Amino acid sequence: MRRRVPSARLERQDGMTLVELMVAMSIMAIAVAAIFGVLTSVQRGVEKQTDIVERQARAVRVTQSLDREVRSAVAMTTSNSGQTLSMLTRTNLDLRNPAKNGKLICSQFKIDGVSPNGVLKKRFWVEPAAGVPAKPWTIVATGVKTTSGAFAIDPNIDYGGSVLQVSITLDGAGSAVDQPISQAIKGDNVLPSNVNTCDGVAPHFAWPL
Description:
Elements: H1 18-70, E1 73-79, E2 84-90, E3 104-112, E4 118-126, E5 138-144, E6 151-155, E7 162-170, E8 179-187
């Protein structure tokens, strides 16, 4: 019986050599690192954009809250190095028909806390309010960095009334930059001769704070 003699040339078997495997793993590692870098960059971009939107939203809340009160105010005063704003406002203000005017309301804005964790707060009460406690403080904005001169009042000599100069800086939070608020809000009915009768009438609280 004849025996089969194996060929001297061995047939190539399927598979990868160690060198090929190492090269493939290196390429895969580079690809994974690149993808991870892109994902990290995208995530940072999203977080930064979220911080910017939140920062701008806080600034809008501040300006809208102040604007609403100043435009219905008849008297304004500042204290506490410009960190407290006191206003005497009137609901349903109607200069053409004073009989339709609503109640006099005392509004107070105050910045509390230490930068960059300051808090802008607001409260109000009916004037005169003997025996009636003021409403609790409500938070308008957090992350206030301004330590003095947040509020200043200038008489509008040319057109009458007064102008509230607002200079507040909000902490950027996260990766966003700080958000400065610099706005002039005109109080058409705030005359220098008008007396802020809110001074000294807030029950259970020393005024101005």
